[in-house]
Amino acid sequence: GSLARVRHGGGRMELFEPAEPLLGPDAVTAADAVLLPGLAVDRLGLRLGRGGGSYDRVLARLERADAHPALVVLLYDPEVVERLPAEPHDRPVRAAVTPSAVHRFG
User: Fold this and answer.
1) Considering its fold, how many domains does the chain have in total?
2) Res 5: pLDDT
3) Coil, helix or strand for 60?
4) pLDDT per position as a tens digit, 48-95
């Protein structure tokens, strides 16, 4: 597709973002699925992020809205590991998609 409606965010994370108009932070609560980045996921579906907290805030917003979209993390095969440390606010993902497989959890 065209990137005409995308602008470089220029922020700390160097993200490409949609051009105006933005949907707003609560639009995610109406989603059927949310694609998440990650560094790893374990066999229970616990995701290791980059530590910035951006996606933890999105997941908290979903919880406050009682929204339950499918949470899917996109990874490479070696990033699906046996066990990761967990924190109380961690929310498991439903699936991890790698180049060779779809791993379903829970």
Assistant:
1) 1
2) 63
3) helix
4) 988 878 888 899 999 999 999 999 999 999 999 999 999 888 889 999
pLDDT in tens, 5-52: 666 666 666 777 666 777 888 899 999 999 999 999 999 999 998 887
Output DSSP code: residue 55: H
Task: Round to the nearest angstrom and report the end-to-end CA distance of the chain.
Answer: 34
Q: Which of 4, 73, 67 is nearest to 39 (CA)?
A: 73
Domain of residue 47: give its range: 25-104
d(CA 41, CA 3): 30
Residue 26 is given by DSSP the state G
Residue 65 lies in a domain: yes
Rounded Cα gap, residues 92 and 47, in angstroms: 7
CA distances from 92 to 50, 53, 82 (A): 16, 15, 14
- For residues 52-91, one letter each, b for 16 or more C-beta atoms within 10 angstroms of the residue's C-beta and e for the rest, the string is eeebbebbeebeeeeeeeebbbebeeebbeeebeeeeebe
